[in-house]
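note to self: dont lose this again. the chain is below, predicted strucutre after it. 236 aa total, dont forget to put it in the shared folder this time
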Amino acid sequence: MNKQTASPPSYLRVADELRRRIVLGELMPGQQLPTEPELPGQVGVSRSTWREAIRRLEAEGLITTVRGVNGGTFVAEPSPADVAAYMQTALTLLSRTQLTTDQMAEARRLLEIPAAGFAASRRGDADLAKMAESVDRARDLHGPEQWAENHRFHNLLLEAAGNPLVAALSAPIESVLGSRIDRESPSEGFWAQVCDDHQDVFRAVRDGDSEAARDAMARHLDNLAKAYLTARPDCY
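---
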């Protein structure tokens, strides 16, 4: 005899319906949702159910609540940063059981090597100024602070590439891979190599040489891949 599958809680059903309408475009970014007192009379759910559904969708970044006289609950307009934050959480969990270091490093190469070439052809003066400052500053830092600055260099390069989707996809991969390196332990030689690699990438981007930028980034990622595998093996 088959056991009946338990029905999901009411708030999940409401959240699923609202999510479906948002994804299909029936509810557009910036559109205000019905107020709490209105909704129960319209779809037959309680206020507590509505509140729980709203909290769930807020946690997913799909809606936002504004307080005050002109406030309310609105469909959110996600940013590339929101996508990156969601992906980083998901990738962190996947990397523990389903993604190897090699697989993540390969995905990073597919994104960042072409991005370096795009940066060389699309960068502006402001991009170059920030990248130059980052390269110089990293050489004077140590440990976690140096790691953070080198991480910033990659973010600046992705911004210079001029495609926010590439940045949103690549930055979380870089961050999860970077967490596999002990930020206190790598030798001075390791950090010096990273700084030299970044200098090579920057020079090619500054000179507008897309091919040289791609080659420099490929060499840099090859060097990093060795450090990922040495510092922390895969978990499965």
